[in-house]
Design goal:
The protein is of the alpha+beta class and 435 residues long. It has a single domain, classed as Outer membrane efflux proteins (OEP). The chain is built from 9 helices and 4 strands. Strands 1-2-3-4 form a 4-stranded antiparallel β-sheet, with no helix packed on it. The chain has helices at residues 10-34, 40-47, 52-71, 115-182, 189-224, 245-253, 256-277, 316-382, 388-422, and strands spanning 78-84, 103-112, 283-291, 299-306. It is elongated and about 135 Å long. Helix 4 (115-182) runs antiparallel to helix 5 (189-224), helix 4 (115-182) packs antiparallel against helix 7 (256-277) and helix 4 (115-182) packs antiparallel against helix 9 (388-422). The longest helix has 68 residues, at 115-182. Strand 3 (283-291) and strand 4 form a beta hairpin.
Length: 435
């Protein structure tokens, strides 16, 4: 039996054409979305999404919370089974019904850890869970800062590469003019060779810029994976950083790294509480039932055990002293972290002020002077008073200053990122909930 053949009527053809148009448009939209430039805000957002390092700290906190529940419980009871007082010599050896003391015993025992010990141990594990949580917040903040700086590194290297290419294109064009003028005596061979050297030097700088871009993208890929290969947005975000001096110390105290250090102090203090709780003695009880034979009476036994702390000065007290020293260590590390953050803030503010001053110098003097010099050279060339090479030199000066200016702008944003990182700026970094 033959399969039915599809009749290609005008209606069917129009339907297929519509489907193909829709598919083409969908593919075009998808491709456009995939090629959208990578902005700084999106980069920071991608860096903390599905981040294994942050998820591992979540797992560690969950683990400590589970351990806290276990630490608050009594130890499992023990079941005891065995034979007591079985003869092993004389003619009664290994006979369970000859001696009055021989019995089969079954019992249950329970170690009793004082409630205070269990509560302190449980609280210590909960504090450790909180420490993992604050460490996660601090790690996320550090990742956001590092990925923002890497994005700016890519941006600067990409911009430098473009500007160096413009310089090379201008110098290649100038070289062509010089080479064509050699035969007529309008230019010297040495001028052409000098231009070749300048082209090579500019190309070397472009290669360095491309290398820096590649290295910066690899730093981005550490946190955002394949998205680091996308093109960087051509717009440089403007991040201003203005904070009153009085508010600086308050913001430093709320920094996640410092809060994590303070939480480490709490864990160390709970270790001291745990060591002091160990001064309370553990005890336990045991009940056993002994079955005897040959119509002898069965036996019931009950025992209580108590830990003896015979050398407290060299055992329990030493453990408490050890934990007290570790508390002091944690406090000193907290103070060191506070000084470190304050030092980083002072350094970032110095960078920001220097970048502002340099930018102002470029805007008010260097850029206008370079542009004026180019205008003068162009006017003189058109009037026949200066050669074309002076115009090329003036154009290169403009590009050099533009190159420096973009470096200043990225330096300014780097400083703003660092200041925002240290002062909990919610415009780039997640707002941390205050206790």
């Amino acid at each position: 039996m033959n399969a039915p053949r599809l009749a290609y009527t005008p209606r069917v053809i129009c339907m297929w054409f519509s489907i193909m148009v829709v598919m083409a448009l969908s593919f075009k939209v998808t491709s456009a979305q995939a090629e959208e430039p990578l902005t700084l805000a999106e980069t920071i957002q991608l860096a903390t999404q599905n981040q294994p390092l942050l998820q591992s700290l979540d797992d560690a906190a969950a683990s400590s919370r589970q351990a806290a529940i276990a630490e608050g419980q009594l130890p499992d009871p023990k079941v005891k089974l065995g034979v007591i007082n079985l003869p092993v010599t004389t003619s009664d050896a290994l006979r369970y019904n000859r001696d009055d003391q021989t019995m089969v015993n079954v019992g249950i025992a329970q170690d009793m850890t004082p409630r205070k010990k269990r509560e302190v141990a449980s609280n210590r594990m909960l504090a450790e869970a909180d420490q993992f949580h604050t460490e996660q917040i601090a790690t996320a903040r550090t990742i956001e800062r590092d990925v923002a700086l890497a994005w700016l590194d890519v941006y600067e290297a990409q911009r430098k590469s473009e500007l160096y290419q413009r310089m090379i294109d201008d110098m290649v064009a100038e070289r062509r003019v010089q080479a064509a003028s050699v035969s007529s005596g309008g230019a010297k061979t040495s001028d052409v060779l000098r231009m070749d050297t300048q082209i090579s030097m500019a190309n070397e700088k472009r290669i360095f810029a491309q290398r820096d871009e590649r290295k910066a993208r690899s730093a981005l890929a550490r946190w955002i994976g394949k998205a680091a290969s996308r093109s960087i947005s051509s717009e440089l975000p403007v991040i201003t950083s203005s904070t009153s001096h009085d508010a600086i110390q308050t913001e430093i105290e709320q920094h996640p790294l410092l809060r994590n250090a303070v939480q480490s102090e709490k864990v160390a203090q709970l270790d001291v509480d745990s060591a002091q709780a160990n001064l309370e003695r553990n005890w336990g009880w045991e009940v056993g039932y002994g079955k005897r034979f040959a119509n002898r009476s069965d036996m019931l036994s009950f025992q209580v055990s108590i830990d003896l702390q015979l050398d407290r000065a060299n055992r329990q007290d030493r453990r408490t002293a050890e934990k007290l020293v570790l508390v002091e260590k944690a406090r000193k590390l907290t103070e060191d972290r506070r000084r470190e953050l304050s030092s980083e803030l002072e350094s970032a503010m110095a960078d920001a002020e220097a970048a502002d001053a340099r930018e102002n110098e470029h805007i008010t003097k260097l850029i206008p002077n370079a542009e004026a010099k180019l205008s003068v050279a162009q006017a003189a060339y058109q009037s026949g008073k200066q050669p074309l090479s002076d115009v090329w030199d003036a154009r290169r000066d403009v590009l050099d200053i533009e190159l420096d200016h973009w470096s200043i702008l990225t330096d300014k944003q780097r400083a703003a990122v660092k200041i925002g990182y240290l002062l909990n700026d919610s415009r780039l970094f997640k707002q941390i909930e205050k206790e």
